[in-house]
Amino acid sequence: MMSGGGYTSIDNQKVPGSVPAVSGADHVTVKFADSSLQTFPPSEAQGKISAVFRPPSDADDTFSKPARGSSDESQPTGWMHKFTVGAYKPYFDVDTSDVLERIRDSLFSFKGSFTEKTADNPDLYGPFWICTTLIFVAASIGTFVTYLAHKLQNKDWNYDINLVTWSAGLFYGYVTFVPLGLYIILKYFSAPSGLVQLWCLYGYSLFIFIPALCLSIVPVEIFRWVIVGVAGFMSATFVALNLRTHIKSAGERWFFIVAGIFLLQLALAVILKLYVFTSSPYGSRSLL
């Protein structure tokens, strides 16, 4: 090493990016203790920052787990659970594609494969909205039909609000209590079926009446009877064929049960025709 003019120069060959080690008696070796610094955020790797971000333990996880006091543990158990909203919540968790596929299957009534497709995941979303739509369609179209009948004969016309409540009671009551009664009968004959599955089947069986009621706006009595009759036959066939295989296990009386299901569905179509589309120019309705 030479010095001159206040500058120090190194005689050894220069190595790019490094300084050659100086050897000598006064050489001091410095040892560094292992670092105890912790990385942030914490990770399993020591001495370096992990590339995976992990939120701190006190982060707000309200949307990842139920809040205190609202967990499933606080819900009633046993048979009391059947009377809670949470018991039926999974039956409304379906995709639009699932509902559309089941509606399409209900229109092809002779396949008889609806119960097999919905055995694992029956839903109540489709039946609820089908019944609600039927109430609106039956009330609106039935009112419009009576309006035309009165105007064509130059008679006074008054809106009948009872048609809405009557339609609601008919469709909601039919889809609720008919499957319930059938469930009890099948259980008596040792051929039980899922109650929710029966509600699902009967709910989708009523979809055919929506286009039928829309077509019945044509003021031709024979045409209305044909439309409602075809819709009732398709709906009854859809329910009977999907339950036939299952009801056969009830014994020799399975045929009478299936026949009763078929005729009851046809009776619904006749009631719709007689009440909704049978009007008097004097503002009264009659089932006769």
UniProtKB/TrEMBL annotation:
<feature type="transmembrane region" description="Helical">
    <location>
        <begin position="224"/>
        <end position="243"/>
    </location>
</feature>
<dbReference type="Pfam" id="PF04893">
    <property type="entry name" value="Yip1"/>
</dbReference>
<dbReference type="InterPro" id="IPR006977">
    <property type="entry name" value="Yip1_dom"/>
</dbReference>
<comment type="similarity">
    <text>Belongs to the YIP1 family.</text>
</comment>
<protein>
    <recommendedName>
        <fullName>Protein YIP</fullName>
    </recommendedName>
</protein>
<feature type="domain" description="Yip1">
    <location>
        <begin position="110"/>
        <end position="271"/>
    </location>
</feature>
<feature type="transmembrane region" description="Helical">
    <location>
        <begin position="169"/>
        <end position="186"/>
    </location>
</feature>
<feature type="transmembrane region" description="Helical">
    <location>
        <begin position="198"/>
        <end position="218"/>
    </location>
</feature>
<dbReference type="InterPro" id="IPR039765">
    <property type="entry name" value="Yip5/YIPF1/YIPF2"/>
</dbReference>
<keyword id="KW-0812">Transmembrane</keyword>
<dbReference type="GO" id="GO:0000139">
    <property type="term" value="C:Golgi membrane"/>
</dbReference>
<dbReference type="GO" id="GO:0016192">
    <property type="term" value="P:vesicle-mediated transport"/>
</dbReference>
<feature type="transmembrane region" description="Helical">
    <location>
        <begin position="127"/>
        <end position="149"/>
    </location>
</feature>
<keyword id="KW-0472">Membrane</keyword>
<keyword id="KW-1133">Transmembrane helix</keyword>
<dbReference type="GO" id="GO:0031267">
    <property type="term" value="F:small GTPase binding"/>
</dbReference>
<feature type="transmembrane region" description="Helical">
    <location>
        <begin position="255"/>
        <end position="278"/>
    </location>
</feature>
<feature type="region of interest" description="Disordered">
    <location>
        <begin position="48"/>
        <end position="76"/>
    </location>
</feature>
